[in-house]
Amino acid sequence: MKNFEERLERLEELGDNIRKPELPLDDALKAFEEGIRLARSLEKDLEKVESRIEVLMNGPEVKADTPPELDLFNGGD
């Protein structure tokens, strides 16, 4: 899979091509279908980034002098 920037560039290229009046209808439809797939994949990536940013911005603050909780690894019965 191509990275975000490559897919965005391809989407822009498809948009430019679709606007050309000499483009046959079948080719325009294929470009539109590819564009829809690309737009959806880009939207998913943006949602993931947005979620990560929200976690970073709103996540719990960990103080540097707070010792780590290790009880999760003690097997504790």
TrEMBL record:
Pfam families assigned: Exonuc_VII_S (PF02609)
GO annotation, cellular component aspect: cytosol; exodeoxyribonuclease VII complex
Keyword Acyltransferase appears in the UniProt entry: no
Gene Ontology molecular-function annotations: exodeoxyribonuclease VII activity
GO biological process, one term: DNA catabolic process
HAMAP family in the record: Exonuc_7_S
Function of the molecule: Bidirectionally degrades single-stranded DNA into large acid-insoluble oligonucleotides, which are then degraded further into small acid-soluble oligonucleotides.
Entry protein name: Exodeoxyribonuclease 7 small subunit
Annotated organism of origin: Treponema primitia (strain ATCC BAA-887 / DSM 12427 / ZAS-2)
